[in-house]
Amino acid sequence: MTGLDVFLTMTEDTEATRYCHSRSSSPSSWVNKLARMAKNEDLGEKEELIKNESENADTHSLSSSVRQHVVDGHLRYHAYHAGKYAFPNDENEQLRDDLKHNLTIQLCGSNYFYAPVRKLLERGANVLDLGKHGNGQVVHRKGPVADSFPETRFHGMDLSPIQPNWVPENTDFVVDDIEHEGGWTYPLNTFDYIHVRHTIHSIKNRPQMWERIFNHLKPGGYVEVQEFQYVAACDDDSCDGPYALRDFLNYLQAGLEALGSQLNSIQHAEDELLAAGFEDLRYQDLKSPIGPWPKRPQLRECGSILRDVIMWGLIGLARRPFRDGLGWTSVQIEMFLIEVRKDLAREVDGVPVFHSYFFFRSIYGRKPSGGNTFPKDQIGK
């Protein structure tokens, strides 16, 4: 199966409002890289709002106030509907997103999607990619695959306006909240394919999201969800003793639950998609090693990438869930992360001591050809 990989960006000059809108709202790596950012931007420890232009208009280009960000302890977060997403959107996080994208492609054997939509995309379709800074599996900010499906229109939706400034003509991006109380701005029965990747762990009302996806798909359209299960699984006895990464994941799960979302929500996706009305569900589970411990070269490379993804993200992953969700101090967080880094890097003769892995699940389903769409005033109720 040939993959799909699209530049997800936008132009800021002509017809900018066509690509991006914003509703009025009240904005409520490595240590060295973050330190450089702090020095260059003269950022303090307290939270501050970076403003650009007026918020009065209901529709904005990406050069307007929708580009606002919140800086919290040298980490940068989205300002539109601030606090809805617990993790940063700064350069370090974008690098991690790109690494996760590369990891996914490698892990899936160069398959960019599994839903049977390739012929549909070749003929021409409407595609929506939800969340993860617009760097989803289908619409990604690096890669020219939009040119491979010139008849198809690709849309990306996310809270963070961090895309580059160039897009193919058949790609656009919208800054919006997947869980906005007013619903989505797209008409019902619009899309042939909706993709969700590395996002549902931050959704607080998943039944509402599945319902919105169902209602905005055309009859016969497909949804596909891809997500890690963030549990340090192991098939031998290498993880039987203390393992700081396992503890980190348990605390992260508890912190996100305190903030209203569920880290391992992918394990409920099948039942929730069936309850939303989808049929013909198919899924695939793959093992993604943490560290280069497998014998197979491809999996060793995947393990190296995933270990970097975790290592580079520890500060950003822990900051709000541990501090705001669990009540930890900054010193407590950093002292604990020292132990996590040690265990991630622990090796004997160049091989990681802990042979752990995450499951990576891809699941897709189809809206029935005669699928009923809920009345618009009932969407998300």
From TrEMBL:
Transmembrane segments: none annotated. SUPFAM superfamilies: S-adenosyl-L-methionine-dependent methyltransferases. Pfam families: Methyltransf_23. It comes from the Eukaryota. One of its GO terms (molecular function) is methyltransferase activity. InterPro entries: SAM-dependent_MTases_sf. Belongs to the methyltransferase superfamily. LaeA methyltransferase family. This is Methyltransferase domain-containing protein. It comes from Drechmeria coniospora.
